[in-house]
Structure formats: C-alpha cells, structure tokens
Predict the 3D structure of the following.
Amino acid sequence: MRPPALLFDLDGTLVDSVYYHVLAWKEALDEAGIELPIWRIHRKIGMSGGLLVQALLRETSAKLNGETIEKLQRTHASAYQRFTRFIAPLPGARELLAHLTACRVPWAIATSGRLETAAVALSVLEVPHDVPVITRDAVPFAKPDPDIFLEAAHRLGADASEAVIGGDSVWDLLAARRARAIGVGLLSGGYGQEELERAGAYRVYEDPRDLLRHLDEIGVRAAAP
Amino acid sequence: MRPPALLFDLDGTLVDSVYYHVLAWKEALDEAGIELPIWRIHRKIGMSGGLLVQALLRETSAKLNGETIEKLQRTHASAYQRFTRFIAPLPGARELLAHLTACRVPWAIATSGRLETAAVALSVLEVPHDVPVITRDAVPFAKPDPDIFLEAAHRLGADASEAVIGGDSVWDLLAARRARAIGVGLLSGGYGQEELERAGAYRVYEDPRDLLRHLDEIGVRAAAP
C-alpha cells in the first residue's frame, strides 16, 4: 500500500500571505469605489479571483462588467506585489515538504492563484523544480471547483480519492470533498477551527509544523519525531 | 425597567481597523527580530498591548525586558498611524450609535487601546463628546480583565451586571463574563462564529448593522425597522 499523496494549498497553508492578499483586495476594491469590510474579504480568500469578486459584489449589490472585474484583479495583483518582500514560509513548511520528499511521499501544490502571483511563495518555500505546481492558469475553474486538486493528483499519477488535501480555507475543504479526497485544515490562514471542521476537515492543525508532527494521524507512516 | 446599557469595544466592533493593527504588530515584531505568523497575532488583538506581547513571546520562547516591550508598543503605534487614512466605520456603526442615542439607550465605548491610537476611530465614528470613552489609560488592567467595562458602566451610572457588551474578540467576551455582563459577538473583527460562541457570546451578529436590526434579541426594545 502506497502512502496517500499530499496536495497542498499555498497561501495561508504553506506561506504567510493571506493577510497581504486581503489588504491587496481591499485596496483594489476601494479604488473601484466598492466599500467592503475587511473580514468579508478575508473569508473569500482562496476562491478563484473572478469568483471572489462576484461573491463580494453580491454582498454590496454592485454590478460590474467583465472589463472592470478584470481591472480589479490586475489592481489586486499589483498591490500584492508591493507586499512580496514580507512573504515568508509558515512555521515548519519547508521542513514538512523536505520530510515528505525524503520519505518518498508524493506531494504537489495546488493554488487558486495565478503562477505570476504564486512565484514568490514558491521561491521562499524552495519548492524543487520536479514538484507539480498547479495554478489557476492550468485549469478552467479554480477552487471551490475540484479541478486544481484533480489535476495535481493526476500529475503525481495518483487518484484524488486516495489523496489528502491540506488547506487553510473552507474553499479548499469544499474542493477536497468534491474531489473525493480527505481534507485537512490549517489554522494558519486565520479561519477558526470550527469553521474548518464544519466545512468537512477530517483534522485541523495549527500550521505546517503541527501537521508534520501528526502525519501518522492522516495515514502517512512517516511522522517527524 | 430601564433598557440595558450597551458597552462597545472599538476595533473590529465599530471600526474596520483590526487587520491594520495586525500588520502594525507584525511590522513591530519583525523589526525586533521576532518571527511570528500573522494569524497568531490576529488572535491576540483586543488584549492589552503589554499582555499581547507577553503572550506572543511565550509562543516563540523569546525573552524581552520591559524596555524592549515598551519599544515594541511604540513601533506598533507608529506603524498603525500610517494606516489611519484607511480606517473607516464598520457597516451600520454610525447608524447603530445614533439610533441608541435617539432611543435614549445609554452606551459607552471601552477599548484596550490607548486614547492616542483610538482617536482616529472615535473621529470617523463621530462619537458625541458626552459619551464615555474608556481607554487603557484610565484603568490599571486592560482586557481580558473586566476593569475597562466596569468603569464604562460606572460612568453611565449603570451596573455592569445589567449591561450588554458588544465585541469582536474572545477577550471582550471573557472580560464580559468577568464583569457579569451579557456578551454579544460580532464577526467583523475576523473571528469565526463558533470561536465567539465558545467564549460565551449569547448571540453573534455579522456587524453593527446586523446588531442594529436585532436589538430586540438582546433586550433593547428599540430595534431598527
């Protein structure tokens, strides 16, 4: 029996970038004259960017055309770029990935972001070049659709229904269920434990370090000492 | 029977400032060479500043003397000042306060912050000058000690045990229980609903607008239409 493949979300799961994404979206929305409280933006991070904008607009009853939505996404991306020097791995993230590689547990990264935005996070994590990285560019629909995770499993030669998906948002957990995978939540993106449990997390850990210590709880016989 | 007095926390409860406080603390800690993931800082916002630093340091096993802790607080305050132009009332906050005033329901503001930091929030909320505002400067211990709320009730000539306390953090709710008051949670600071319920919130509302619509649920016979 092979160990399950591990598919990781990126922002808030492996790198400490969620709060910067939140404020970059806040800036983009403000600039477009759309007033939204910050916590509502936080709760939508991890969705596809287009979906996020649509979902937020529904709460303000604002209507925007495709061109303006595209512009919002560009403004977010450039506002986020200003924060990139602050982006750091979450505690234990590099150790977790290195440990999995050393133990020959297959793993991949699956993010709703675009490669352009994800590049900094991948670089600070020192992700090896042969690890599959699936971004929003590679699939027709980002999370909470399961496509990104299905493609990540496919690239590993694994079946998503035998994989474990680690993510910090309810969108990861919904996509995990739709991919028939086991979802595991991480608190490091700022959601509460019960929010993640209610969304179907089989277990919730604080951060990658905590997950590394408990790998045996998710069926990987290679927990760190 | 008089209506219960309402005692409000400020950041995340009436003004959309929690995420800026979080990043201002992140900047101060980084500058002091203390690496902490942002979600852990978020979960400590609303505590007294000194307690917050102590609690965060415990998680890193770092040890700092009183002088360095004082410096951290100054760096946070000056980093936060740079965000002040973004500080806005949360949806419904001004309407809620004006409605209470019009209905002669006594209310006050009770925050763990210092007056210097709270001034911008009070200004965007247009808090009338005769409303009691209790800051950390006025009491020996900030939240989660109950002193700030007890003092706020006292200034209104009310008994804290007959008051309702509205706050966005578990520290507000703990302080509310210690003051023998009824605690009501607001999601607008970014905590999850269940986190606030577990900390003892009698009800949880999305934001001040949602609370305004449901005032009758907390014993104020003056809900907005």
The CA atoms of residues 21 and 189 of chain B lie 11 Å apart. The longest helix of chain B spans residues 66-81. Chain B touches chain A at residues 12, 16, 18-19, 22-23, 26, 30, 35, 37-39, 42, 86, 88, 90-91, 187-195, 198, 207 (CB under 8 Å). The mean pLDDT of chain B is 93.
